Write the structure tokens for this entry.
Amino acid sequence: MTISKIVGTLTAVAALTSLAAFAVTPTTKMPAKSSGVVSISLPGDLGFAFKPGPGSNLATSLCLSCHSEAYVAMQPPLNKTVWTAEIVKMRNAYGAKISDDQVAPLADYLTANYGTP
Ligand code: HEC
């Protein structure tokens, strides 16, 4: 065996070793889909949507920019005074963009659907 043959053999072994190392490197498994399109679920798809009813559009547009409807649904049934305070807190403490004339319709909606009179 000549020197160059030995070097050639070592190079081939090194190449195979690095290929083997590459082959066992864990890869992120994508869901098997022939089109290659991956779908994800957003909170709204998981049932975290405001209950339909008068005012639900207002809640959807004003409350979902920071958190899901689950924050509302997981509260015990609150009365209108407490829901009003909650809306005002979202505005004053967290900067929610809610105008004065939107507070009452929001409180009515939340009380009717997630509260107690
Ligand atoms: C600007 C962002 C923002 C918007 C818009 C917003 N919230 Fe919140 N909300 C928060 C933050 C921040 C928390 C506290 C999260 C925590 O403590 O983990 C919170 C928490 C809550 C909670 C849990 C109880 C509490 O007081 O912490 C409720 C209920 C709630 N929000 C209702 C609402 C409703 C109803 C609206 C729409 C009228 C709304 N939020 C809009 C930021 C927002």
About this structure: Residues 59, 62-63, 65-67, 71-72, 75, 86-87, 89-90, 94-96, 98, 106, 110 surround heme C (CB under 6 Å).
